[in-house]
Specification:
This protein is an alpha+beta fold. The protein contains 6 helices and 5 strands; from the N terminus they run αβαααββαββα. The longest helix has 19 residues.
């Protein structure tokens, strides 16, 4: 029987890093990180025009209620994030919720999506994907009435957990969040 060399974890990590460091794309190695509570909140807005806005408000859209379906699609978007974003780690999602606020002043709907987990990496992409999926669903259900729709300002508002604690978007937070942060 031949003598086996025992390789410690550091040597193994260095060996793998050396072989693969020149690849164009690499999923971040989180294997040495500790699992901590992570939460992220993202938002985005869609302008639908007065006609569509009034139809949504009065629950008269031809394909059904965009708000209810957008909330459901946000959950699916959150859960499927790592399937769609190539270098995004698949994460166990402990909680997600979506809030959609109708703004009559500019005929818009603003989507907020919060996601939380206990994991080695954050859920920012999941929150952003939840917002994008909800906005795209509203777009899909509204384009039959008005194809001139505009999605904008999709952004991360807050992230918490990991070594950096709480991060707030430097552009500011919506009024309803200011009392919490």
């Amino acid at each position: 029987m031949s003598k086996l060399d025992i390789i410690n974890q550091r040597e193994l990590n260095d060996w793998a890093k050396e072989i693969f460091q020149n690849n164009s794309f690499n999923m971040v190695d989180v294997s040495s990180k500790k699992e901590t509570f992570r939460r992220a909140l993202a938002s985005g807005k869609i302008y639908v025009g007065k006609e569509v806005f009034d139809l949504i408000k009065n629950k008269q859209m031809p394909k059904g209620d965009p708000i209810t379906l957008a909330e459901i699609s946000a959950v699916l978007g959150v859960k499927k994030t790592s399937d769609l974003i190539p270098l995004c780690h698949p994460l166990p999602i402990d909680h997600t919720a979506t809030k959609i606020i109708m703004n009559e002043v500019d005929n818009s709907l603003e989507v907020f999506c919060v996601v939380s987990t206990v994991a080695k990496t954050g859920v920012e992409m999941e929150a952003i994907m939840g917002v994008n999926t909800a906005l795209t669903t509203i777009y899909d259900l509204s384009k039959i009435i008005n194809p001139f729709l505009k999605i904008e300002n999709v952004k991360l508002l807050i992230k918490e957990g990991g070594k950096n604690g709480i991060w707030k978007n430097p552009d500011g937070l919506p009024d309803f969040l200011k009392n919490f942060f």
